[in-house]
Amino acid sequence: MINRDRIKAFLTLLPSMILIAVFVYGFIGNTFWLSLTDWGGVAALAENPVRNYAGLSNYKELFTGFLGGGFRQDLVNAVYYSVMLLLGAIGTGLIIAILLDNKPRGEAVFRTIFLYPMSLSFIVTGTIWRWMLAPQGGVNILPTYAGLDPLKFRWLSSTGAIFEFNWQNLLQIAFYILAAVLIIGGLMSIKQNPTRALRRFLLPGIAVGLAAWLFGDLLPKALFMEETHGFNLATLGIIMATIWQYSGYTMALYLAGFTGISQDLRDASMLDGATTAQYYRYIALPMLKPITISAVIILSHISLKMFDLIFAMTGPDNAETGHPALNMYLTTFRANDFAKGAAIAIILFLIAATFIIPYLISSYRQRRTR
Amino acid sequence: MAQVELLDICKRFGTTEVVHNANLSIGDNEFIVLVGPSGCGKSTILRMIAGLETISSGEIRINDRKVNEVMPKDRDVAMVFQNYALYPHMSVFENMAFSLKMAKLGKNEIRQKVDKAADILELTPYLHRKPAALSGGQRQRVAMGRAIVRSPSVFLFDEPLSNLDAQLRTQMRMELKKMHLKMKTTTIYVTHDQIEAMTLADRIVILKDGRVQQVGTPVEVYERPDNRFVASFIGNPPINMLEAVVHRTSDGDAISFCGLTFPVTLPDGCRDQDQVLAGIRPDSIKRDEALAALPEQWLIDGRVVVSEIVGSQSLLEFTMGEASVVAELEGRVAAAPGQTMKLGLNLENLLLFDPDTEQAIR
Ligand SMILES: Nc1ncnc2c1ncn2[C@@H]1O[C@H](COP(=O)(O)OP(=O)(O)O)[C@@H](O)[C@H]1O
Ligand SMILES: [Mg+2]
How much is the ipTM here? Predict the structure, then answer.
């Protein structure tokens, strides 16, 4: 009986399994294969284009090649963009949700107002913010209402950059990041299991950090010349617009979560002596960890795939505000360099996977232990 | 170790008043039970004492200190909620330790107190589990543990047993009583279950529609209910209420109902030919050998409607004239429906109520 049920279930699922296999995994595989070829150049659009296996040369060129500087800046932009968007949208959404959770007068109205930007398309958001961020536009003349001088900041075309680093030291920086991750992980788990945290995380973290600091000069350089990249101030405008659009969304996520927590828990925590801040810190937020995780995953995906908003705000080829997704589009369909475009797509895919895979593994484990 | 006083407490939600002028004075170490049907304002009163609801008017005093404006955490009360309200992401230990952590106690002190409470409640093996991995009874005990670690001066319970199955409820009820006898902390306990109230309380407060109906020991409210509602609410199976007329003549007092007249001693509050409601408790109805103790005139013939055996006792529903009456009889009665049975009414315990005001006539 069970066997027949299984066969039926399998047959029912088969069509979607085939479709997903072909259109998702098949195409990922095909893109990966293309990224290993040299498809591109003058004859790229020929009826039967020449495609020779070229190994990892596309990747090598993107990361260490003479002409890859633009892509590298785009990648750095995407990383800063993701981090800022996560902090900004989750932080803002959370603060608004906490305020609304305490039932101010007109809570429903505010909720709608804050959620409203979600309903706009990126093109509309982009256009609105392009006007607002124009050199003599809305944001810059805001101080004049208070009798101050207008701002002069060029939101979308500033060439300034902060947090700069030399791409040559890529390996060293990677080791620093690894050390930081280990140390933070160790500090987070030190309460539950101090010896394990010390052995598995803290000591290795400190060792890696120290080694990278002492022997960083011995590491091979990623590039033959110096090339600095940093957080381009011109991306601030885009970050602001995205935060504006998405903090309503995170607010809705958190507010739904807060509303789902029984009033009794809040009452109990009050009787236990917790202040409002402590209630959120110790009770509400830890209970909403799944919401935070989904928000991080969703927002990091959005920021890694961001295309239309940047397109609408600064056009596709503003070097200061570039993004790998735009770069991929330009490389593939303007420069007809299909192989390199595929390589960029695969790089974005891998970065996205680093967010998702740990999540999938942990939720799978949780389901198993339950 | 605390007295709690409610002085003319009112609670309004918007324009609807749900608690009307409640007065209550609770002594040291007392176990007070607030009982009443669902929606009568029990939880609201308890939450006002805890400080979780504002007080619309009146005054609450704990240990002679007015606490109307005092924050819940500063009232030195602990509360156990109906659904336990355990923090789901914390282990049993963390749940019990939370209030101590908020009070900034030292690690060792917290551990000591939690361990002691866990020991009393037999929770030691479960300290590292999350609430989701506990049974209903264990969760209930964690909720109590969370209350007792703080050694508050007042315990508040809001229907703490109503989510448990019947057997566990009886068991937990006895444990609660034992715990109170041991710790002697002033306790205010809310329930809609009059059996819980009768078994646990030093004194019972009966509420209806936001008004206190009567305050008294379990025996007092059972034997001398102030009004018809209290008489009907307390006691299981419920009291039989029969329409009756009283007679005060030179021959002596009598009461007639169901077409029969019985000589009784009437309270001073009734006059000849008054219409009254006669309340007869099911356990005031006797049979067989117990009949010998009753005067001849109190014996009747009952026509059996249905009988059921409950352990060593039997419940019997019978008709007497037009009225249908329930009796709780000693021993196992196997009576066929339609059969006529000799029964006696012990009218010494007769309760009389005014049919209009529903107040007891005394
Ligand atoms: N927050 C509230 N807003 C409006 N009415 C309420 C609120 N809480 C309780 N009530 C009303 O007050 C009355 C008493 O409620 P409650 O104290 O919970 O009753 P009980 O605990 O005796 O079942 C009910 O009629 C209920 O509808
Ligand atoms: Mg209630």
Answer: 0.84
